[in-house]
Amino acid sequence: MHSNGTVLVEAEPYTYELSPSQCALLIIDMQRDFLEPGGFGESLGNDVSQLRRTIEPNVRLLEFWRSKGMQVIHTREGHRPDLADLPPAKKVRGKGTSTIGDPSPMGRILVRGEAGHDIIPELYPKDGEPIIDKPGKGAFWATDLHAILQHKGIKQLVVTGVTTEVCVNTTVREANDRGYDCLVPEDCVGSYFPEFQEMGLKMIKAQGGIFGWVSHSDKIISSIS
Ligand code: TIU
């Protein structure tokens, strides 16, 4: 611990100086539709086990964050029941037989209030932890996340969740442009595609940390402990 309250976390491309009072854990889209068998993700032909390996490390990191009284924020990707915020292009993309808003075994696909849209029970938010409902891949676009972070004095984000190259990368890029320092624990983010997992992380830390830093949850926890 430094005199200014920061701790040093071993990371790539270089050491991350983490300020616990200014650092939120931002958990992206750990929703049943993406992670559970029978959900939207699996219906698109994806292997959900690639994402499910992130559950246990996320549970450990979340419980640690809570034990330290540090800020936790959750996001969910989804749409209004009337689908007024669903871009027509997103509705028809992929030419699937069932798409966003259609009925599924876990309710209407990616619609707010439906079972499949909600966060998996293992990581369910506690009272006082803001949930950002976002219509896009990034957590900043068309949401109040930036305002919430500013009001809480947050300047750093540990970004976890799914999927690495889609909603995690988009959010890290949006955050970077708004001046936040992002740290991504590689064990806490997942992709349906192993090659995108690898490249998604490389893209963040390349060129001296063009979008942010990459580390491991064990290193983050041991540094703050
Ligand atoms: N949360 C998130 O990444 N949404 C996606 O649509 N991901 C896919 O990989 N499809």
| Biggest pleated sheet | 7 strands, parallel
What molecules are bound to this protein?
tricarbonodiimidic diamide
According to DSSP, the number of beta strands is 9
The overall pLDDT, averaged over residues, is 96
What would the principal axes of the Cα set say about the shape?
globular
- Number of separate helices: 9
How big a fraction of the residues is strand? Answer: 15-25%
Find the structural class using helix and strand composition: alpha/beta
Q: Which consecutive residue ranges, at least 5 long each, have pLDDT under 50?
A: none
Q: Please compute the radius of gyration using only Cα atoms.
A: 17 Å
Ends distance: 10 Å
Into which percent range does the helicity of residues fall? 25-40%
Secondary-structure element series: EEEHHHHEHEHEHEEHEH
Task: Summarize the structure in short.
The chain has 9 helices and 9 strands.
Describe this entry's structure for a reader:
This protein is of the alpha/beta class and 225 residues long. The chain is 33% helix and 17% strand. The protein has 9 helices and 9 strands. The protein has helices spanning 32-35, 40-43, 49-52, 55-67, 88-92, 145-151, 164-177, 194-209, 217-224; strands spanning 7-9, 16-18, 23-28, 72-77, 131-134, 156-162, 181-185, 189-190, 213-215. Strands 3, 4, 5, 6, 7, 8 and 9 form a 7-stranded parallel beta sheet that branches. A hairpin with a 6-residue loop joins strand 1 and strand 2. Helix 7 (164-177) runs parallel beside helix 8. The protein is globular and about 55 Å long. The termini are close together. Tricarbonodiimidic diamide is lined by residues 29, 34, 77, 137, 162-163, 166-167, 192.
